[in-house]
Amino acid sequence: MRRILIADQLIDGLSHTPIKNGVVIIQDQTIDAITTKDQLGNDPEGEIIEVPGGTIMPGFIEMHTHMHCSAEPEAYEQVTSETHEELLMRSVEAVRSTLISGVTTMRDLGSKNEIAFAVKKAVSEKKIHGPRLLVTGTPITTTAGHCNFFGTEADTADNVISALRNQVKLGADYIKIMSTGGVFTPRSNVRVAQYNSDTLRLAVKDAERLGVRVAAHCHGTEGVLNCADAGIHNLVHSTWLSADPAESWDYRPEVADIIAEKGLWVDPTIAIATIRTEKGIPFSDQEIAASAVLSDMEGRFAILKDMWDRGVKFVTGLDTGMSYVGFGDFAYTPQTMVEGMGISEMEAIICSTLTSAQCLGIDSETGTLEANKSADVVILNGDPLSNIRRLHDVDTIISQGDLIKQTGKVLI
Ligand SMILES: [Zn+2]
User: Fold this and answer.
1) Which are the contacts of 201, defined by CB distance < 8 A and separation ≥ 6?
2) How far is the CA of 250 from the centre of ligand 1 (A)?
């Protein structure tokens, strides 16, 4: 099957300058060539899909999902009480919803009962529809620690290494470890580290031996410091919360420099609050009082922008499945990077595609529009370089060569 995609401009994920009247030629599952309408000739062979006024770009990469969580206000109660079968059904729907929003690669960053492995297999065998999946299995946490109810508690360094090896044995593409407590887990402490840097360093070393990378959840500054020190490949949240509950932030610019120097990626989960605001679901006074991120959103954006200016590489994780954070909501992340943090539209698009593919170690396969890469392509209505919100308006989706959506109509 040969398809020719044509639109007013093409963003390839590499260049900061779009190609005018860009064309992608797809042969089966692979990009055959990138060209322009002028060079196409009069009667090119293949099915033509043209979106006047549109923008062709690589498919989005969602770096942070919990596929079996509901995204409903009761997400915590549901995930801690539902049966394996109920969670599995939620996952099947979640991966489909994610795909039809334009996400062609997705990383599950923690789920229970080994569900993500079964879903990944079903997607790769085309039994169900979903994006290319990379999965971490169950996250590694301390007893009573963040997301302990997902099932892998490990307190000592030896236990952490055993847990990590077990996830690799089950099929994990990436390792997730909880370096501090989290908001989703009552009684875990978001401001204090769950593991010291020696334990994290051993985890990184053993993961690298096994050919996988490590992503670590970190809210409190102590946890961020431990992750930076240990060389955790992907810091998740990186919230810089002070250990003192009376303070919001304890940001250390010199550690941001170390994160940049070591080439570690940061997934700032920047859009969770944006989604609530945009969907018209206000925060209660109690929620705002309990969260530094909500009570000082500008302060959080300023910290992230300073990290960016120091050369830290950002990837696009939304934390889908958490309350109100839906599986079709990807575009809120680059939107918030532009409108909140203040980077350019093109920079946010490159974070959403190439940089995220690099963090996953799959940039030779996807993340840019280049010949011989996987045909993971979206066409937007309009120009996201003049309005980043155009990323919400996906006209056409091709995932590994399969036509998922065309002219706004979902075909699966
Ligand atoms: Zn998460």
Assistant:
1) 229, 230, 231
2) 22
User: Among residues 253, 212, 257, which one has the least CA distance to residue 232?
Assistant: 212
Residue keyed to tokens 């109810």: 149
Q: How far does the centroid of ligand 1 lie from the alpha carbon of residue 321, in Å? A: 8
- Intervals of CATH 3.20.20.140 along the chain: 60-360
At residue 287, the pLDDT reads 85
CA distances 175 to 15, 72, 200, 237, 368, Å, are: 31, 26, 11, 16, 25
Q: What is the mean pLDDT of each run of 10 residues along the chain (412 residues)?
A: 97 97 98 96 91 98 98 94 96 98 98 95 98 97 93 96 98 97 87 96 98 97 98 98 93 98 98 92 86 89 98 98 96 98 98 98 98 98 98 98 98 96
**387 Cα: distance to centroid of ligand 1 (angstroms):** 28
Distance 236 CA to ligand 1 centre (A): 8
Task: Tell me the CATH class for 2-58+368-410.
Answer: mainly beta
The C-alpha atoms of residue 181 and residue 380 are separated, in whole angstroms, by 38
Fold of the 60-360 domain: TIM Barrel (3.20.20)
Cα(64) to centroid(ligand 1), Å: 6
How many residues would you count in the chain? 412
Indicate where the chain has its CATH 2.30.40.10 domain(s). Answer: 2-58+368-410
In terms of Cβ atoms closer than 10 Å to its own Cβ (0-12, 13-18, 19+), residue 402 is: middle
